Amino acid sequence: MIALDAISSANGTDDFNWNHTPVGTPKGVVVLLRANVGSDVISSVTYGGVTMTRRAASLKATGEGMGAYAYELLASVPTGVQSVAVNMSTGGPTVR
Fold first, then answer.
1. What is the pTM of this model?
2. Which pLDDT value is given to residue 88?
3. What is the distance between the alpha carbons of residues 56 and 68, in angstroms, rounded to a whole number?
């Protein structure tokens, strides 16, 4: 069974981060990002300092001017309030 317990969000045009407060003890974390550019601008995402895995299903929409990315952390998930950090390979486009 998959349950959604908490949502947090942020926007940035360069490396950026925000705090996420889970409910209880998380078993996994998924970060979904959308960039207003078709090229790959995200170099990594961390949750509580732990590098997240980029899913193969992430999209880089060519010609559409949009990219969608999914990152997950399914083991050794830190508990309590954690920082989510998005590291960009290039600045400029807006990532949500």
1. 0.80
2. 83
3. 11
